[in-house]
Amino acid sequence: MSWLALVAAVPAMAQEAAAPEATAAVVATDEFVELDPITVVATRTAESWIDTLAGVTVRRSAQLDMLMPSRTADLFEGMPGTTAIQNANTSQTQINIRGLQDFGRVAVIVDGARQNFNQLGHAGAGGFFIEPGLIADVDVVRGPVSNIYGSGAIGGVVTMRTKDADDIIAPGKSWGVEATGEAAGNGFMGYGSVLGAARVGENVDLFIGGTYRDADNYHDGNGDVVPDSGFDTWTGIAKATFRPADFHEIKLTALNYDTQFTTSADAGAATSYSTQATNRTVTASWNYENPEDNLFDWRSSVYWNQVDQDQVKVTGSSNPITGAVGDPRSFVIDTVGFDANNTSRFSAAGWNSAITFGGDYFQDEIDNTDDYGFGEGYNPSGDRGVGGAFVQWKGNYSTWLEAIAALRYDAYSLNSDDGGTSGERVSPKLTLGVTPWSWLTLYGTYAEGYRAPTVTEALVSGPHPLPFNTGGTMFYFLPNPGLQAEVGKNKEVGINIKKDDLFVAGDKLRAKFNYYQNDVDNYIELVEFGSSTGTICPIPGQPNTCFPYNWGVPGYAQYQNVQEARLKGFEFEGTYDARKWFLGVAGQISEGEITAGPSAGQPLSSIQPDQVSTTLGFRFLDEKLTVAVRWTAVAAVKASDLPVNSVFEPTDSFNLVSVYAGYQPNENMLWRLSVENLLDEQYTQYENFLPSAGLTVKGALTVRFGGGEVASISDPLYVK
């Protein structure tokens, strides 16, 4: 990957090199060499994203540069079937894929470490904290088709890689520094980062850096200040990479993220909390990859992740549920885990085959404390162990047929002082792909995924101060330690199109279309029931326990298995690049409802609105200057689209128009300018309680420099 590619402001479809552990497919013309990104997230075997037989979207540094992300949710803007939910008054982000979110239904992995934090609230229950300026690669696979990647991902998998020495040091050099400064209007936002790397001989890379971001409250499209939309974060990161022998690589990573913000339950809420959250991650990986060794292609990692969120009540009346102003509470989760797999390759009977087998395990230790309210009841402490093992065969017959078959075994155990549960299951996957012409591939997939309930879902307990149904004053959460795990059964058909030199020499067309239907058995949903008098006997999920209605409340809520939910939809993503100009289109149409049980026919509240996003851009001055305009149209969410008693409000449709310009006067400097929400549209993203920002102008400058010489590099894995 050339030094130029690291700093060029190319569009979303101008794909660049993948993460260091993967190779890349090269398309050459007389003027340039362009790389189709390689991903391993769907099958754990390296393949071009456009050739992957699944709904996969990848973004590399150049595409992320164009987005100029100031919030983590910006990294996912315009992705088909993927919505990042981040309310204005928090630094926490949740990922919704195909209508599934919360409690690990989407596995989020940063530098190999799972992000399992969840805090039950109106804005969801399952998020993560990361500085977008540190992210170099984002890979998303939609649906449970990546069941070999880890337990629980019935919605999909999101993997992110933070920047590393290879992103900073120019080829042939021994050290490098990258410095970025960024500022934005509409409530001042300032960002700065300094990242440095050094190459000690041929076999040791060192990387260290830090970032700081500070944002004031912004204005919405009506010009009103959105309270508590400001925040500040700082990060520190360090990595060390060792190559102790040919084809072996050991990497150590440490990441610390701190953020401060003020949050509340929803818009206009009387109670708010000053919040400080820290996300700490340590990972160690060992990979072995020798192109001449068909027996061993080994990848492994161990990790520790801790999220510590401390809150102090700053507004609101004193009560036994939320405490008094000045009362603290804390939510801590420690996750430790490992992941290991090996791929062996062989040829027989005309098939080129790859067999991958491996296993993974993580342990969540949850320690929540609230001595003044019921925060600990809403988010009970406990521990959960989840693990599994898998085997996958991937075979190619000639150039026209590809088959993938996999089996995964999952098991879990959930424990606390209030009870526990456990379970296990084997989940299959089968994919067939046919390529009748070199530019067209058709595929079909059946895949299952298995998600264990979390400690919060099974054991949440305590009174809630907000209305239940209509006219109520409060309701009571009931635990359900007998919850069963969810099982996703996904059927999917898709088309991949890859065509070069279509209209002019050197142009590229890439497109993916897919239709899916995911039937989730034992779907876990919050169910409301009861009246103000009488006794529940037995409590659902607790056959030997009764609960008297002696709290004087009109109703109760409990996480229950509602038998089955069905989610289905259509996704598309296409790009055309003729170098002088480029065009990208992506979008989705989706729906979901409960299909069995007492709530049959009720829509799912987590289904995201239909949307389409289009990008049109041009390159000038020998491709030193790139300008682009992006238009995103999002449909309304009507009251009829929501279940009865949904905590989410309907939203109007909206259109967002943004423009971008990137100028690279030389290989070591990149100027960027963007105007977001150019039309100053007033809108609120679905599932958010506060309106989004109005017209916002951003400017940034990135400078890279370095030196030293590396005489020779013998390891082919080292040459990117």
UniProtKB/TrEMBL annotation:
It holds the Pfam family Plug. It is found in: Cell outer membrane. GO terms for molecular function: heme transmembrane transporter activity; siderophore uptake transmembrane transporter activity. Residues 51-157 form the TonB-dependent receptor plug domain. One of its GO terms (biological process) is siderophore transmembrane transport. Its main location: membrane. GO terms for cellular component: cell outer membrane. InterPro entries: Beta-barrel_TonB (IPR000531), Beta-barrel_TonB_sf (IPR036942), Plug_dom (IPR012910), Plug_dom_sf (IPR037066), TonB-dep_rcpt-like (IPR039426), TonB_haem/Hb_rcpt (IPR011276), TonB_Hb/transfer/lactofer_rcpt (IPR010949). Belongs to the TonB-dependent receptor family. This is TonB-dependent receptor. The gene is hmuR.
